[in-house]
Amino acid sequence: MTLDIDHDNDHDNHSFLYTHAMACDTTPKLAVLVDAENAQYSIIGLLLAEIAKYGTAHVKRAFGDWTDHRLDGWSNELLNQSIQPIQQTAYTHGKNTTDSAMVINAMDLLYSNCVDGFCLVSSDSDFTPLATRVRESGLMVFGFGEHKTPKAFVAACDKFIYTEDLVCPSGLVPHSDRAEVPQSHNSVQQAKEDGHPAIRQQNTTENSLNNSGWARLSDVGEHLTTQHPEFNISTHGYSKLSKLFSDSPNFDIEHRLSQADKPPELYVRKRKTSPRSAQI
């Protein structure tokens, strides 16, 4: 499987997931399960718009103890977005009781074979086993949560989208280990050029051509998405992976024509000492 990111009609990173999720020519049906006690109602509209990039929200359910006044803000969003509220009574004070209800619902949907993937909306690591189990069954798992989400849950998903990035898609949302977002043009540009740590550390010699250190950008993109589910090029102000690599001072790029009747493929390698290679 390849990523069509090596010519003028290259896709952004979500197209890979869309293709990966599709076993046939129909749009993937997704089950959106929201842990209302660990999610923000204010971003649900943006979240559903993001989910629409990957498939159709065939099932939309939000779980919580709706008698708890702390969840009152959800009422309008549940109605406006046609999300089904699932009541889970808090049997023990102070304990999140939505986890078990959400897991049971997910397993029922999994065995019903009515969906092609799941969107799990929570910053709670308790859903890590669920994400792992769903993936073992061959279905896609998209996770949505805040930057505080434990890495175990992030890694258990095929793709993880930080909800802060939905609010500021073209900026750099600070992680817990960053004090602030770069403000000046130069600092923002430097952040874009540096890119995600996964790109800076990417070993592009894997799957390289003739051991020359070159690798197809489609292979690199697939590796990034597989190994770093949280990777999102829009966080760095780009819509295409090819543009991000082109703007980076750390990589050389070549266009290679493999077949006369097909667009050239993009190849990339870590820059050494020579200038960026010209198109061939």
UniProtKB/TrEMBL annotation:
Disordered: annotated segments: 177-213, 256-280
Pfam families listed in its UniProt record: NYN (PF01936), OST-HTH (PF12872)
GO MF term set: RNA nuclease activity
Feature: compositional bias, Polar residues: 200-213
Regions of compositional bias (Basic and acidic residues) in chain numbering: 256-268
Residue span(s) of domain HTH OST-type: 210-256
UniProt xrefs under CDD domains: LabA_like_C, PIN_LabA-like_N_1
Domain annotation NYN: ranges: 29-163
Name of the protein in question: HTH OST-type domain-containing protein
Native species: Penicillium nalgiovense
